[in-house]
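Is this the right way to post structure tokens for a design question? Let me know if I should format differently. Anyway, here goes:
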């Protein structure tokens, strides 16, 4: 049957083209990552394209990704990029079986997109960042040309057989795997200096230690969040697809800008030689929904930031200072803007070098990050910081402000029910409802709980540490059979009670009251 035979031949040809396209894409990625390991690991095509996608994603969609996928949002993005690339590769491969030049142009387009993305990144090191994508595209085009040419040859009565194509494909796949493995090995070696510098770092004792944790600050209630969040469990929300691994020995911090009479530069050793402070501080991400997990409390060790600014001649606006915004820049190009007035108003704003008794983990900003108690992280908590510029809010919009978030963002008073869990099934009788509440730099003075439409009843507060940390609470409830909604609200140290009005996280943090529904059998 000629029609069936023709269809099978077309299908077989398309399959060979799709295989060739996938192998070309795999080779392109592997060679690109190998070259990136030699040039600059952060210039790899998946990383730079992913970063460009993050930068151009609408704030609402970005917030949805964090809310839906949590700390796995970057993994989901990378898998999505690879899936799109695979579909593109299949299409290019099939096209190349019939229009080879058009297919090769598609592979070269991969290189153009990657190169443009690399050069547009805020941390771009220059034209060299385009090399990985260009080299990958050239290698991918070569593989596609070779495989599609040889796959077509048997039909003309010469060249490779089908078995020859499969052999060439297997060799190509092996070569791509080897190139990728070598790239990962070399990239790992480049990061060993950073790992070694962290392993060798010995943090000095603080000149001003943190006060001893009050007895009773940690309640003995199963299911409640630990008062001190471990480094492993501390939340991570940022835009870095690849966590920067900064060698502490080569790290420098530059302090300059408007109102700076004496520009300064510091090494890590110079910061460590200064009097350090140690403080318990709760951090909160502005992307944290009501009742969400993106809050954590740690013991931080660092250099008081206000002292560094004063040494550089900086004065707050209330004392005639010319700058009202401090722009912190990360090694990956991220910019965060903090109000100078709050940084210098006496709170424990710091450049942190330690977290819970050890050097900062890479995920949390090693070797140095910034902290300003009472402000959401997107306007205060720059990780992998390398530059501080004094300017004004009118003159410069940092990364998140350009994307619709607020310029100023003090942490809102919030409370959360940790236990019982949503849709839990506690037994009838005595049940302990418990959780945490926070209002950094104002403190928590009262927490109240309501069951269904009943009256608000005051919860028992754990001992308070400082106004900059969260506070645990508990409430004894005699559970009765049926479905129940438990709601919590907190009052901060100024007497302001947490609002019941629900707002989104954009532009300056979510508001509303957390509630859980449980069923008592």
């Amino acid at each position: 049957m000629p029609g069936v035979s023709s269809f099978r031949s077309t299908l077989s040809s398309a399959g060979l083209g799709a295989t060739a396209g996938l192998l070309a894409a795999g080779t392109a990625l592997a060679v690109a990552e190998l070259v990136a390991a030699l040039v600059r690991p952060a210039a790899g095509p998946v990383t730079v394209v992913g970063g460009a996608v993050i930068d151009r994603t609408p704030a609402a969609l970005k917030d949805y990704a964090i809310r839906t996928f949590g700390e796995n949002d970057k993994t989901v993005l990378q898998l999505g990029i690879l899936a799109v690339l695979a579909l593109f590769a299949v299409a290019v491969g099939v096209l190349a079986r019939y229009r080879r030049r058009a297919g090769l142009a598609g592979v070269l387009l991969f290189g153009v997109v990657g190169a443009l993305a690399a050069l547009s990144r805020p941390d771009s090191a220059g034209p060299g960042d385009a090399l990985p994508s260009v080299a990958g595209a050239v290698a991918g085009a070569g593989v596609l040309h070779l495989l599609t040419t040889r796959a077509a040859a048997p039909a003309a009565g010469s060249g490779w057989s089908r078995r020859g194509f499969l052999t060439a494909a297997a060799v190509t796949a092996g070569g791509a795997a080897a190139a990728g493995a070598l790239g990962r090995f070399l990239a790992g070696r480049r990061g060993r200096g950073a790992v070694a510098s962290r392993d060798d770092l010995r943090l000095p004792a603080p000149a001003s230690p943190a006060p001893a944790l009050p007895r009773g600050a940690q309640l003995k209630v199963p299911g409640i969040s630990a008062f001190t969040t471990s480094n492993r469990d501390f939340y991570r929300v940022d835009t870095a697809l690849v966590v920067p691994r900064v060698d502490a020995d080569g790290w420098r911090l530059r302090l300059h800008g408007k109102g700076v009479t004496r520009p300064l530069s510091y090494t890590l050793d110079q910061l460590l030689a200064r009097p350090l402070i140690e403080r318990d501080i709760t951090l909160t991400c502005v992307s944290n929904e009501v009742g969400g997990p993106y809050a954590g409390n740690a013991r931080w060790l660092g250099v008081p930031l206000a002292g560094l600014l004063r040494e550089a001649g900086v004065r707050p606006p209330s004392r005639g200072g010319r700058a009202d915004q401090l722009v912190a820049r990360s090694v990956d190009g991220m910019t965060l803007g903090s109000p100078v007035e709050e940084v210098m108003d006496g709170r424990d704003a710091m450049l942190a070098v330690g977290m819970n008794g050890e050097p900062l983990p890479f995920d949390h900003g090693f070797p140095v990050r910034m902290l300003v108690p009472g402000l959401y992280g997107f306007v205060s908590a720059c990780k992998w910081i390398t530059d501080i510029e004094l300017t004004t809010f009118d003159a410069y919009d940092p990364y998140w402000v350009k994307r619709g978030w607020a310029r100023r963002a003090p942490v809102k008073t919030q409370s959360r029910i940790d236990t019982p869990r949503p849709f839990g099934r506690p037994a009838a009788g005595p049940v302990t409802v418990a959780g945490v509440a926070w209002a950094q730099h104002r403190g928590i003075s009262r927490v109240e709980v309501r069951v269904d439409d009943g009256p608000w009843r005051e919860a028992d507060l754990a001992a308070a540490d400082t106004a900059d940390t969260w506070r645990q609470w508990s409430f004894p409830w005699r559970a009765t059979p049926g479905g129940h909604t438990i709601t919590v609200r907190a009052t901060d140290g100024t007497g302001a009670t947490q609002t019941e009005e629900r707002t989104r996280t954009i532009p300056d943090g979510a508001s509303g009251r957390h509630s859980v529904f449980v069923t008592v059998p």
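Format looks fine. Someone answered above. Worth noting: Residues 162-200 form the longest helix (39 residues). Confidence is low (pLDDT under 50) at residues 1-11, 154-159.
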